[in-house]
Amino acid sequence: MDQATSLQYDLKxxxxxxESSQGLTAALKEWQHLRRELGGYPEKIQQKLVxxxxxxxxxxxxxxxxxxxxxxxxxxxxxxxxxILQEKARLEQDMRARPLFLRRxxxxxxxxxxxxxxxxxxxxxxxxLAQAPAELEEYxxxxxxxxxxxxxxxxxxxxxxxxxxxRRSLDLAIGYLEQLHREGRVTFGSQILQLEDAQRIWNExxxxxxxxxxxxxxxxxxxxxxxxxxxSMIRELPALSMRVREVEEKFTRLVTRHDMLASLGKTVIxxxxxxxxxxxxxxxxxxxxxxxxxxxxxxxxxxLESFVSxxxxxxxxxxxxxxxxxxxxxxxxxxxxxxEGSEDVFAQVSAMARSLISAIEARDRFLxxxxxxxxxxxxxxxxxxxxxxxxxxxxVLAALMHDVGKISVPEAVLSKVEPLTEDDWHLIQMxxxxxxxxxxxxxxxxxxxxxxxxxxxxxxxxxxxDHLTGRQIPVQASxxxxxxxxxxxxxxxxxxxxxxxxxxxxxxxxxxxTQFNPEAIExxxxxxxxxxxxxxxxxxxxxxxx
Length: 546
Fold this sequence. Notes:
Layout: H1 3-13, H2 20-64, H3 71-97, H4 105-182, H5 195-215, H6 220-263, H7 271-291, H8 294-325, H9 342-363, H10 370-384, H11 389-400, H12 411-414, H13 422-429, H14 431-439, H15 449-453, H16 475-489, H17 501-510, H18 518-528, H19 533-537
């Protein structure tokens, strides 16, 4: 069968029998038309593909600038593009595999429909690329907003946690301070410092912090910072109260002595000055202490200290002069508690102290006579420092009773020969606290409680119980600390031999400025260079020394 015969046969096969003769010409025309039409499709598809690739390049550039890519839209774009490429390749391969003139009309129609479908897909992709930027931009903006909301929620939760942590830290600081207050270790002996007033101020400040946060006046970071600043201020109050109590004691003593002097017809301090300093002490300083204005507080304390140092020497001189002229006129100043019978109370306390010390030293076989030796050394240091008799008597009493708290430490720990355990050390380190608790109820010796309580503080802040540093430590406690260390080093202990006087002094000098007050060490050296120190070294009882 030749080509023409085959073509006629194919055409007849695609026509109904009745129409075979009439439709043969029309079918032939359609067959020819389909061949021509199909021949132009590859070029059309390629031209469209070039346009689409340019559009895809713009699409890539646009999507690269977005933070969030709409995965569904992007997948539809590339799926359709890949389908177009695959279909184009398939149709081109189909057309190469079998010439068109060998195909029936039905086959040519199917091939034309496939090419037209490919053109339609290209148009759909073109439309999709035109709409994609708007869809992608909308999706990107929604995702950005969601991410911002997510981050904002994370920040909010983080701030809530940080604020809660800051509040817990603040509550712990307040709780610790309240415990110290219950134990009498914050405002003990002070007439001007009231913890209740301070707590009212802290609550007002805390409420103001959260009110400012709600109003937007401060951001969460500032809220947290202010809470921690408040917590830090509260933790500093015990150390600050020590200095306030010290200047309060000095000022009260000076004014009391000056009032006595004035009652005897002599004044050296202008009344306006006393009134101004009284206002500073009773109004300004408590407010600064409660507010935690450390810099202003220290300045106010320094002003009062300067006032006291300016006049106390003159007042003492005038009182001494009046006593010489009128013996007995200033007797009421000899004992600090001015109530009737205070001298008897002081004598009774001294006797009680020696009884307690005897009971303690009967339990501690290594340091028998230690407290007496320390009291003798301290009396000589007080004399070398130029203290008056009253102040020296109280300091000697504090030195005598510095270890009175050991009455509450188990004897098994005090007399232990083997190295002390951590629990043993904890018990030993509680004895200053126990000593202060024993002395607190006795009003006549209230002033010595801080000296006994702080005699194991270190100059570098590594001591106990309150880790005071430098000038925060009462100078009287520093004298006791140095005298106690020196006396202890002269005694043989289970873990070391006794030191000589020179070795003990050398050890003190080596720790000056770290463990001990350097000025106290210099004072002790002055005392030891005095010939009277031989009596102490030889163990002579200081009871008779005045």
